[in-house]
Amino acid sequence: MTSGVRNPDIDMKNNFIIFQSRILVAILTSLFGLFLYADTFAQNANSQQDRINELLYKIALARDSISYEALTTYEFFTKDGIRREQEKSIILGSNRGWWQTIIPEESKNRVVILRDNVYYIVYLDKDSVGVRLQSSRGGIIKVENIALLKKNYYVEFLPEEKIQNYLADVVKISPRNKDRSRIKIWVDKKTGFFFRFEKYDKDNNKVFQRFRENVVFNPNADESIFNVEYSGAIPIEPKRKTYKSILEVAQELNIPLVTPQFPPSGFVLSEISVYRGEQPVVQLYYADGLWSFSLFQRKDKRKEREIEIGEDRNGRITWISAVKDNIFYWYVGDLEDVDRDTIIKSFKSIKLFDKTKLSKTEQIIKKYY
User: Fold this and answer.
1) How far apart are the C-alpha atoms of 360 and 357, rounded to whole Å?
2) Cα–Cα distance between 141 and 63 in angstroms, integer?
3) Domain locations along the chain
4) Which of 334, 144, 176, 204 lies closest to 265 in space, CA to CA?
5) Which residues contact 330 (CB under 8 A, 6 or more apart)?
């Protein structure tokens, strides 16, 4: 009889099957765990992206909706030390603003008024008014450029902080292009209002900061402060109109429009505007989601004029201009050194105005003249 006698071959086979089953269970358990981890990670990533989107839209919309009064301090960190400016301001939405300088002393008699997309620089001691077009349209984050910002920059939340009795999100925005600056901002969680803004260069040195104090939301402002009384010749207030394409502008204006052959990396043509006054002025507005510059163009009586480069008191290039073939071109913006160098090189090489090397769009436009 063989009953009760174990067959070693069968036992080995059973043990191998049990071993395989345990390995399979372990693998399935691990895969399930990885699936849960990946799902949790994806949910957290989506949640983080939702939070970033919510914040960026809140900031962008705040520019048009928030009215406030504040004392604003600007500090510029230069090789000669820290230079400080301070101003009182009353802002009513995106299209009306009033600023009066407190520091430095020599600028106290200057008031800047924003009305209908035009800045008026009022010199109280001289009883005169200067006019300049609004080049950046205010605000560093705009709804239409949020996707572009996320393409060119990383957005990271830091621990929340209390600032002026308000709970603020603290956010770092870093460039994917390492030659550009990064910023750090303190934003009111409820409204998207900027309390503080810091800018660092590519080597992580602080180059600028702005902070607002004594903030009053929805102030009872005297509307008369936005009125501008002219002395002497009265400038015609330009009327601004936006267009969808350069071709559309060319169909209305008899001016040979020019676009940069090689705009700085990451920047795209974001908006086209025309200011109509005594002389129509075309504005090509470029943005990378965070920073921006504008290229203005208008007819000029002069045939040619050498390139001129303008700097502010901190040594930053803020405008470049030239006249070519009776057209006055001027660039206005605050870009990184690498971007400004590209603009300057384009101006100096005159490729920007070379009508023999026009793009296909510009060749079509040329037919209208």
Assistant:
1) 9
2) 9
3) 63-223, 238-366
4) 176
5) 295, 296, 319, 320, 321, 322
> 63-223: CATH homologous superfamily?
Lipoprotein localisation LolA/LolB/LppX (2.50.20.10)
| Token pair listed for 265 | 């990396």
Shortest CA distance to 94 belongs to which of 114, 70, 120, 72?
114
Largest CA distance in the chain: 129
| Structure confidence at residue 273 as a pLDDT band (50, 70, 90) | confident
Query: What is the tens place of the pLDDT at every residue in 56-115?
Result: 888 888 877 889 999 999 999 988 889 999 999 999 887 788 898 998 888 888 888 887
- φ, ψ at 189 (rounded to 5°): -60, -30
Superfamily of structural domain 238-366: MucB/RseB, C-terminal domain (3.30.200.100)
**Lowest-pLDDT range of 23-32, 211-220, 224-233, 257-266:** 224-233
Question: 75-106 b/e with 16+ CB inside 10 Å = b?
Answer: bbbeeeeeeebebeebbbebbbbbbbbeeeee
76 phi and psi, to 5 degrees?
-110, 125
Q: Which of these, 113, 139, 117, 154, lies nearest to 192 by C-alpha position?
A: 139
* Cα distances (angstroms) measured from residue 133 to each of 92, 223, 257, 290: 19, 22, 18, 20
Q: Give the integer Cα–Cα distance in Å for 254 and 251.
A: 8
Three-state secondary-structure class, residue 306: strand
Q: Are 293 and 332 in contact (CB under 8 A)?
A: yes
What is the Cα Rg of the chain in Å?
Answer: 29
Q: Which two tokens stand for residue 81?
A: 């030390």
Amino acid identity for residue 250 in this structure: A
Residue 238 DSSP one-character state: P
pTM for the model stands at: 0.72
Buried b (16+ CB within 10 A) or exposed e, 198-234: bbbbeeeeebbbbbbeebeeeeebeeeebebeeeeee
